[in-house]
Design a protein that fits this description.
This protein is mainly β. It folds into two domains: about 55 residues, no CATH class; about 60 residues, no CATH class. The protein contains one helix and ten strands. It has a four-stranded antiparallel beta sheet, with no helix packed on it. Strands 2-6-5 form a three-stranded antiparallel beta sheet, with no helix packed on it. The longest helix is centred in the last third of the chain and has 5 residues. The protein is elongated and about 65 Å long. It starts with a strand and ends in an 18-residue tail after the last helix.
Length: about 140
């Protein structure tokens, strides 16, 4: 992330919860800084107009498993009481792969006619997050 400061004297940037705080690198221009932290926020107290702040951290890939309480074709029962004589069917366990906060793959895949959700092979195999340039203006709320 690159921040080009216009007029701020202090900067607070939220870092994702999954990021390793020890791996976060902060540069002011070309100078590497050791910023202060407040929870998941990097705090920079001494920035000046025109400063360029660069914040980087490694992308993290995690795998999580979730089991549905009901069979997929009985999902409607999730919000109803099936009665005391109902026996729990064999539920499906899904393995989900995340890159940061983004779900990039789910297995097993639904064999039905639905869309192939979360089939993001490019994101799964890539090592660098896709970059997007946006312009944001933030006003200082202090008088």
């Amino acid at each position: 992330m690159v921040i080009r400061n216009k007029t701020a004297r202090r900067l607070s940037v939220r870092i994702p919860r999954w990021a390793n705080k020890r791996a976060v690198q902060v540069k002011l221009g070309t100078e590497r800084l050791s910023p202060s932290w407040l929870g998941n926020y990097v705090i920079l107290d001494t920035i000046r107009p025109g400063d360029r702040v660069t914040i980087t951290f490694p992308m993290v890939t995690t795998t999580e498993r979730y089991t549905l309480k009901w069979k997929l074709n009985q999902l409607w029962q999730e919000s109803t009481d099936p009665g005391s004589d109902w026996t729990n069917p064999t539920p499906t366990t899904y393995t989900m792969t995340f890159k940061g906060n983004t779900l990039v793959n789910v297995t097993p895949r639904d064999g039905g006619k639905g869309l192939p959700l979360y089939a993001r092979k490019v994101m799964l195999e890539g090592t660098v997050a896709p970059m997007k340039t946006v312009t944001r203006f933030v006003a200082d709320t202090t008088p």
